[in-house]
Amino acid sequence: MPARYLIGIDLGTTNSAVAYVDTGAADPRVRVFEVEQLVAPGTVAPRRQLPSFVYLAGDIDLAPHETALPWQPVQPEGNALRPVVGELARNQGARMASRMIASAKSWLCHPGVDRNAAILPWGDGDGPKLSPVAAQALVLAHIREAWDFAHRDAPFVEQEVLVTVPASFDEAARELTLQAAAKAGYPPVVLLEEPQAAFYAWIDGMKGGKGLAPGERVLVFDVGGGTTDLTLIDVDADGNGFT
Q1: Angle at 101 between CA 107 and CA 6, to 5 degrees
Q2: Contacts of 24 (CB under 8 A, 6+ apart)
Q3: Reduced to 3 states, what is the DSSP secondary structure of residue 50?
Q4: What is the pTM of this model?
Q5: Residue 144: which pLDDT band, with cuts at 50, 70 and 90?
Q6: Which of 55, 135, 159, 181 could form a disulfide linkage to 104, CB 3.0–4.6 angstroms apart?
């Protein structure tokens, strides 16, 4: 049975965002999915972006009821690991950086470390740590759980999912991204390079690329929070595609 929803995730270094198309709708257009997340202790609200930060909460700073989400039971006191993802994670991490994981995506392409080892937050602190893959999986899992909470009749695992990656990601970083998605409970995903995704969005806004002539070139600047990629796209000779 074909998936009802096509879900695209811009898995960013600093912020992530989710868009989707309801293929069963009378007007199947791209819409932004607002992700429910903790925005303050004990306060949950939808946001168009999910800050890609993970905060490893403890009883000394956030009580269990202050990190509870609508789709999760309140965890008992003394739990050594209560990860928080999103706006609260970013804000709380500014107060206690030793418990915040930022830029996990950038660590996936760092060949000088074991990206499956518990090394984050980076430093000599004796607090809890996670691997870059595990931290990235927490961000992805939060998106899945928020989707399932909002679409109880259309589970995330039954949809078609695409995740963007930097054009500069090597094969190892792409494979680690797929590992993180699998760890987060995703169905098999399609990886798409971020400049290519931006070009597709631009084409969609131009009604299928009308106005582009054979032989023309489009230069895409993708300036992100952790990577900057430049991609040159050629319109082919007969005007029926792009290379």
Answers
A1: 75
A2: 4
A3: strand
A4: 0.92
A5: very high
A6: 135
